[in-house]
UniProtKB/TrEMBL annotation:
Organism lineage: Bacteria, Pseudomonadati, Acidobacteriota, Terriglobia, Terriglobales
Alphabetical list of Pfam families matching this protein: Beta-barrel_RND_2 (PF25954), BSH_RND (PF25917), HH_MFP_RND (PF25876)
Cellular component aspect of the GO annotation: membrane
Domain of life: Bacteria
InterPro entries according to UniProt: Beta-barrel_RND_2, MdtA-like_BSH, MdtA-like_HH, MFP
Membrane topology note: Single-pass membrane protein
Subcellular location: Membrane
Identification of the protein by name: Membrane fusion protein (Multidrug efflux system)
């Protein structure tokens, strides 16, 4: 191809490109297209304004966080007695009601202990009744002893007086006997010369001598009576002293004996109460053999089967309630400026497809989560980096019975709470 042919071909290609540009050039816009374009621009501007307003309202009039979850009380059901499980009534993930049977522990040993406690209580009550009845008996016996002792003192004093009178009488008889003996002796002395002169008969003289001897013997007998009377007075005085001592002891020991009997009755009463306490403990232990659900909920973490030997405090299962629930939301500290107790909250649950629940703020935590952790940070050591802290906030459901009628809400579900901090 010659150079001239190449130039002609190039000119033809340029001409074809110019023709194609003229053919592809858009026709002039009509007024309808201009109006539609203007409407679209205005709509976009309106949407931007609305979006900005919503963003401003959301950021100014409410606070939200995605660090929140449903909370609830988890009830660990454990054994309160030791024994072998003989029956289990529930399975994992089963719904139970409050008071529903969960398991039974063999009650034979605890039934024997209960019967023994009943027998011990009956014995203690009998001992107390006997001691209680003996209190008035001891009181009456003590009073009688005091009265008798007083009477003995009076009688002994009277006996002393009588013995003293008898001694006086014996003394008088001694004096009389001595006088008689003296008279008889004088008669013998007078009769002696007379009998020698045969003035009087020998018989009269012998009678006088016999009378003198008898009166002398009477003096000795009267003196012996005086000695006996003195001994009787001494014995009566000793009896008076003994009676007075017994009266003093009765007056002193009588109330003490009553107090001792009352103390014994009180001790028996304490034994009765102790036996009652042991009986009540035996009754409780027997009742603990039948394990029931503390609340209504769902059985989880079941760890008990028939034949297993359980001990006191051993966890058997967990009951998760589905009615007493709340939300724990961990808000940033910068979000708490206008947050107060009682503010309304909208709650969105992720697991239920964003189902909305209503609630209110009931508590604001007393410390940040990091401060309450097992190993709180020590900012005074090492390099310090400021980290926005989070505070746990409790949010209670306000209409849970109606909004959770199907009981699908579970502890641990993630929640997005939106707190209205401005009305």
């Amino acid at each position: 191809m010659t150079l001239a042919d190449q130039e002609n071909q190039t000119q033809n290609q340029n001409q074809n490109q110019d023709q194609n540009k003229d053919q592809n050039q858009a026709p002039p816009e009509t007024p309808e297209k201009k109006s539609r374009r203007k409407f679209i621009v205005i709509a976009v501007l309106i949407l931007l304004v609305i979006g900005g307003g919503l963003f401003y309202w959301h950021s100014t009039f409410s606070e939200d966080t995605d660090d929140a979850q449903v909370d609830g009380d988890l009830y660990e059901v454990s054994s309160r007695v030791t024994g072998q499980v003989v029956k289990v009534y529930v399975q994992d993930n089963q719904t139970v009601q409050a008071g529903q049977a969960i398991a039974d522990i063999d009650p034979k040993d605890y039934q024997v202990a209960f019967d023994q406690a009943q027998a011990n209580l009956a014995s203690a009550e009998a001992d107390y009744e006997q001691a209680h009845v003996n209190v008035p008996i001891t009181s009456v016996t003590s009073s009688t002893s005091i009265s008798t002792s007083g009477s003995d003192v009076t009688a002994s004093s009277a006996a002393v007086a009588q013995a003293e009178k008898q001694k006086e009488a014996a003394d008088a008889r001694v004096v009389q006997a001595k006088a008689n003996a003296l008279k008889a002796q004088l008669d013998v002395e007078r009769y002696t010369p007379l009998v020698q002169k045969d003035v009087i008969s020998k018989q009269q003289y012998d009678q006088a001598v016999a009378t003198a001897n008898a009166d002398t013997a009477a003096v000795l007998g009267s003196q012996a009576d005086v000695i006996a009377s003195q001994e009787a007075v001494r014995q009566a005085q000793q009896k008076v002293a003994q009676s007075r001592f017994q009266a003093q002891q009765a007056a002193k020991n009588g109330p003490q004996q009553v107090k001792a009997q009352e103390a014994k009755a009180q001790s028996m009463l304490a034994s009765v109460k102790q036996a009652q306490a042991k009986l009540e403990q035996a009754r409780l232990n027997l009742g603990y053999c039948h394990i029931i659900a503390p609340v209504a909920g769902i059985v989880s973490k079941k760890n008990v089967d028939v034949g297993v030997n359980v001990s006191i405090g051993q966890d058997l299962l967990t009951v998760v309630p589905v009615t007493n629930l709340w939300v724990t939301a961990n808000f940033k500290e910068t979000q708490l400026d206008k947050m107060q107790v009682g503010q309304e909250v909208k709650l969105e649950v992720d697991a239920l497809g964003g189902r909305k629940f209503s609630g209110k703020v009931t508590q604001v935590g007393g410390a940040t989560g990091s401060r309450l952790s097992l190993f709180p940070p020590e900012n005074a050591t090492g390099n310090y980096v400021k980290v926005v802290q989070r505070i746990p906030v409790r949010i209670d459901f306000t209409n849970l019975d109606k909004e959770n009628g199907d009981f699908k809400l579970r502890p641990g579900f993630s929640v997005t709470p939106i707190v209205t901090v401005k009305q």
